[in-house]
Amino acid sequence: MGETNNMGRLDGKVAIITGAASGMGVRHAEMYVEEGAKVVLADIAVEAGQKLADKLGANARFFKLNVASFEEWNEVVKFTEAEFGPIDILVNNAGIGIFKLMDDLTIEDYTKTMDVNTTSIFYSLKTVVPSMRKAGGGSIINISSVDGLRGAPTAMAYCSSKFAVNGITRCAAAELGADKIRVNTVHPGVIKTPMAEQGEIAEIIAALEAQIPLGRAGTTDEVSHLVVFLGSDESTFCTGSEFVIDGGMICDL
Ligand SMILES: NC(=O)c1ccc[n+]([C@@H]2O[C@H](COP(=O)([O-])OP(=O)(O)OC[C@H]3O[C@@H](n4cnc5c(N)ncnc54)[C@H](O)[C@@H]3O)[C@@H](O)[C@H]2O)c1
Q1: Which of 138, 169, 129, 126 lies closest to 231, judged by CA?
Q2: What structural domains does the chain harbor?
């Protein structure tokens, strides 16, 4: 945790981070608090999310949010404004992946993936942007994937949902520039989250690492540094852009 008298890169900024109870979202939340932000960790996983918020201290809160519920987005915005004030940064990080060949992929699988990964972003814009206008501007960071830039077997629902995130991001950037609200996507490649370092997933990652020009998977810290940059005033001329962080995995596209 940074010293309170040191300048943080996100000092005084109010942020909502979705999917902050697990994986990369945990590190984004930790780094945001270390850099001086006040953060609402929003997730459906109550126990893990509350535990992390308690650990992060006075500048963190947990709120139970299902990102696929418009009503709950209204509630998390009210909660954040009441606790910390108008919202400066939104990190849309919550996401799911259902990986099946098309013949096995059900209508429910497809609809659920789109609801959680894509429609949620539309709900977040409808509810969070009015708060950012009150703050005088803001930064929205939508976590997509390399699978939002390429197709892959078994990834039809996931790729569809992540490609659509790029579209909604560019439209939002085009509409919201006048409000000084920036909107960008982040496209991680293979990232070693704590869960991915064990068992079968670790073996899959080891095989994938051989195909990555930098010869390894990324770390959550590397992605969090980019998410801090995009939330901070260091990135004030960046909007409507796709930030790929993949060790060169899709450099041949
Ligand atoms: N891990 C990778 O290698 C990788 C690569 C590219 C993109 N991504 C993307 O990065 C983001 C984070 O990935 P991760 O691997 O850290 O994920 P993870 O599975 O570790 O964590 C996702 C979090 O989202 C939460 N969540 C799921 N559904 C939700 C809902 N309806 N409402 C609110 N919260 C919900 C989960 O409870 C969990 O805490 C995702 O959007 C994912 O698609 C991950």
Answers
A1: 138
A2: 14-188+231-244 (3.40.50.720)
